[in-house]
């Protein structure tokens, strides 16, 4: 007759134990992969697409190609400019040609002969001018012509000296700088041309191809988006009451919606700043509305899609004295 009361007491005891047992802390979010965006280096038409969305590719695999014609022409012009700058620098280093020096010497000799003739003519007019046999204005013109001829001699001598001294060091430095700038511009165009053949920088999966064959994407637009990495990670929002007990390196269990069991992982990062609501705008019980972005990396590779809802359970915090 005492069996029923004893069974009821056992049931109530089991229910009380279940009520005292606390579920481990958990946070909700989505499953993500590290993403790589491949931007368009120039605004050119897409002429070839080698992959499709969802395809797994190896590092260095061709993804798509942009039109090359304009960039190839710009590269050819930059290389020609670089060659011109190099030749100009070589000319500066070589200095004046012997023919230029010979020409300068001949110009000096001609100026000296003209100066002697002008001085001789002025010397003949001077006594005639004193005797009033020629006009004073003729004497003045002869004196000016003699002075001008002497100036021509000095200019020709300076031109010859400049050639004999060679190219100044400052001019050579300017030529070197111009050549370096032209070569750098050619290198930039060469790199741009290489980027028109878009390749996979890492092994991964093609997540998105925003543009189709024949489209012309603007500069900086994403031509392809890849999911990379050995394992996905859960991006979750940790409620404020849990934040103090969640630390980088902490073990966690990741439950993926639609998959049985849990995936072992560890906390990679927890943001120190709360999202959406500034911490200083809340106080008291309102602080529980805060949440902190965290990332939990799976310890083993797993073929899971991005964007799937997940639930993350962290290791339980130590029980406080007096808790049931």
Automatic annotation (TrEMBL):
<dbReference type="Pfam" id="PF25881">
    <property type="entry name" value="HH_YBHG"/>
</dbReference>
<keyword id="KW-0175">Coiled coil</keyword>
<feature type="domain" description="YbhG-like alpha-helical hairpin">
    <location>
        <begin position="72"/>
        <end position="193"/>
    </location>
</feature>
<feature type="coiled-coil region">
    <location>
        <begin position="68"/>
        <end position="95"/>
    </location>
</feature>
<dbReference type="InterPro" id="IPR059052">
    <property type="entry name" value="HH_YbhG-like"/>
</dbReference>
<dbReference type="InterPro" id="IPR050465">
    <property type="entry name" value="UPF0194_transport"/>
</dbReference>
<dbReference type="GO" id="GO:0030313">
    <property type="term" value="C:cell envelope"/>
</dbReference>
<protein>
    <submittedName>
        <fullName>HlyD family efflux transporter periplasmic adaptor subunit</fullName>
    </submittedName>
</protein>
């Amino acid at each position: 007759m005492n069996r029923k009361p004893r069974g009821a007491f056992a049931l109530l005891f089991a229910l009380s134990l279940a009520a005292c047992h606390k579920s481990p802390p958990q946070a909700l979010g989505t499953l993500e992969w590290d993403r790589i965006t491949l931007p368009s280096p120039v605004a050119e038409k897409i002429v070839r697409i080698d992959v499709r969305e969802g395809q797994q590719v190896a590092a260095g695999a061709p993804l798509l190609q942009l039109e090359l014609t304009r960039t190839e022409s710009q590269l050819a012009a930059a290389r020609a400019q670089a060659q011109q700058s190099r030749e100009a620098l070589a000319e500066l280093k070589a200095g004046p040609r012997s023919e230029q020096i010979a020409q300068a010497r001949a110009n000096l000799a001609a100026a000296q002969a003209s100066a002697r003739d002008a001085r001789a003519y002025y010397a003949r007019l001077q006594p005639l001018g004193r005797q009033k046999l020629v006009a004073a204005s003729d004497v003045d013109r002869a004196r000016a012509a003699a002075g001008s001829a002497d100036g021509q001699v000095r200019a020709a001598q300076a031109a010859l000296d400049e050639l004999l001294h060679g190219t100044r060091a400052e001019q050579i430095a300017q030529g070197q700088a111009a050549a370096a700038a032209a070569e750098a511009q050619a290198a930039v165009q060469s790199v741009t041309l290489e980027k028109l053949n878009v390749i996979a920088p890492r092994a991964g999966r093609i997540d998105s191809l925003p543009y189709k064959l024949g489209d012309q994407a603007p500069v900086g637009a994403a031509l392809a988006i890849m999911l990379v990495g050995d394992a996905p990670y859960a991006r979750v929002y940790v409620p404020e009451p849990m934040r103090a007990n969640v630390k980088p390196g902490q073990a966690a269990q990741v439950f993926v919606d639609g998959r049985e069991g849990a995936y072992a992982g560890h906390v990679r990062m927890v943001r120190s700043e709360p999202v959406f609501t500034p911490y200083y705008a809340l106080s008291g019980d309102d602080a529980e509305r805060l949440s902190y972005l965290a990332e939990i990396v799976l310890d083993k590779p797993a073929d899971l899609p991005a964007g799937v809802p997940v639930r993350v359970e962290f290791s339980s915090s130590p029980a406080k004295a007096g808790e049931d």
